[in-house]
Design the sequence.
């Protein structure tokens, strides 16, 4: 692909997981359609399409039953390919959902031995990520949920989750890893109901931890769109709270199974507002694509998928700059800000200000009379997105 302004650069901080480009296209109704892509080859693929970073679950890189010598060999070879390509590892995570031992959860399991094993496995995954200087550690509770609430009281699950997070924070401090933990919410799948179904639920949970300063969130487009929520609003809440530690970019048609579509491919307007927000506020973290290619593709198609994710982000970033600079849009925004109505300011509470506010007479009819021009503003947005402005 020729170089243009939509060609990714290292400063864009685009990353993919080994599990994304390495996804073999298996689904509940059909087996794999692509051969296994070894981690070193996945890194070479990502370097070839211009990605900056690669992320991994522990078992994406080191098989769950690998011995010490095999682990050492895998780590050595992976480090060599990173050095060879210049690709970095900004984030690591742990797989607490695939193996049968997690069939009833990991940190929230009823079995204390499973809970202890889950914490041990996570500690070892943290060790692995630290070997590659990962600064963020994501935790997604894929099996932390239920098919029936007969199995446990949900408040007990929350207590168990808190205990595990507190322990892992202490371990990171003790080892000097400096991790920022990013908690990833999802409402359902693979469980019927997953605890902590939304980013907002996690934002409150974080306030109850022993080290809330170490823990933030990792909102994912698909996980917010599955139940019909607004991803940009969730990201904005996390950003405003100082808790946007990581982000997962993909796409999703609301109301369907977790699709992990190429970024911006299903809801380009929603993707535009998300990109615009991230760029407007100056988000400095990785732009991580947690998606995978269609089942129809071979590995050349996987490259097309990866290039497409990054290109769409850069196109929308360019559109966001155009939106911000558009003369008519700026005039409309200024017009909306000029109400012409006098009112006492509402800020920090002071007794005398409250008295003035209570005494003020508002003209409701006048306040409701002015059109807000949102139709025109939205159409201008569409004109920009559709390339006719």
Sequence:
């Amino acid at each position: 692909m020729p170089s243009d302004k939509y060609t990714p650069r290292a400063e864009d901080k685009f990353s993919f997981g080994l599990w994304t480009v390495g996804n073999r296209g298996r689904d509940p109704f059909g087996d794999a359609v692509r051969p296994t892509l070894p981690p070193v080859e996945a890194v070479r693929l990502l370097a070839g399409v211009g990605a900056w970073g690669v992320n991994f679950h522990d078992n994406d890189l080191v098989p769950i039953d690998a011995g010490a010598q095999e682990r050492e060999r895998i780590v050595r070879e992976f480090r060599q390919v990173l050095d060879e390509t210049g690709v970095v590892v900004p984030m690591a995570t742990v797989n607490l959902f695939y193996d049968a031992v997690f069939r009833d959860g990991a940190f929230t399991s009823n079995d204390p031995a499973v809970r202890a094993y889950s914490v041990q496995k996570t500690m070892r995954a943290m060790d692995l990520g630290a070997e590659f200087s990962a600064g963020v550690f994501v935790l997604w509770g894929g099996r932390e949920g239920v098919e029936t609430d007969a199995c446990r009281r949900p408040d007990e699950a929350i207590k168990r989750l808190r205990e595990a997070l507190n322990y892992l924070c202490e371990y990171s401090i003790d080892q000097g890893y400096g991790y920022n933990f990013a908690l990833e919410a999802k409402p359902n799948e693979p469980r019927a109901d997953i605890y902590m179904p939304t980013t907002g639920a996690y934002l409150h949970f974080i306030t109850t931890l022993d080290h809330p300063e170490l823990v933030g969130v990792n909102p994912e487009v698909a996980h917010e769109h599955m139940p019909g929520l607004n991803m940009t609003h969730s990201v904005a809440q996390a950003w405003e709270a100082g808790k946007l530690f990581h982000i997962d970019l993909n796409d999703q048609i609301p109301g369907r199974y977790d699709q992990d579509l190429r970024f911006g491919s299903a809801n380009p307007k929603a993707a535009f507002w998300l990109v615009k927000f991230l760029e407007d506020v100056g988000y400095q973290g990785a732009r991580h694509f947690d998606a995978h290619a269609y089942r129809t593709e071979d590995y050349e198609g996987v490259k097309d998928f990866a290039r497409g994710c990054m290109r769409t982000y850069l196109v929308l970033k360019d559109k966001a700059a155009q939106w911000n600079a558009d003369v008519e849009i700026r005039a409309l925004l200024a017009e909306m800000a000029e109400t012409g109505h006098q009112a006492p300011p509402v800020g920090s509470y002071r007794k005398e200000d409250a008295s003035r506010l209570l005494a003020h007479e508002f003209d409701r009819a006048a306040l409701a009379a002015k059109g807000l021009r949102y139709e025109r503003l939205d159409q201008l947005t569409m004109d920009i997105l559709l390339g006719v402005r």
Summary: Residues 10-320 form a domain with the TIM Barrel fold (CATH 3.20.20.150). The chain has two domains: 10-320, 327-385. The mean pLDDT is 96. The longest helix spans residues 299-325.
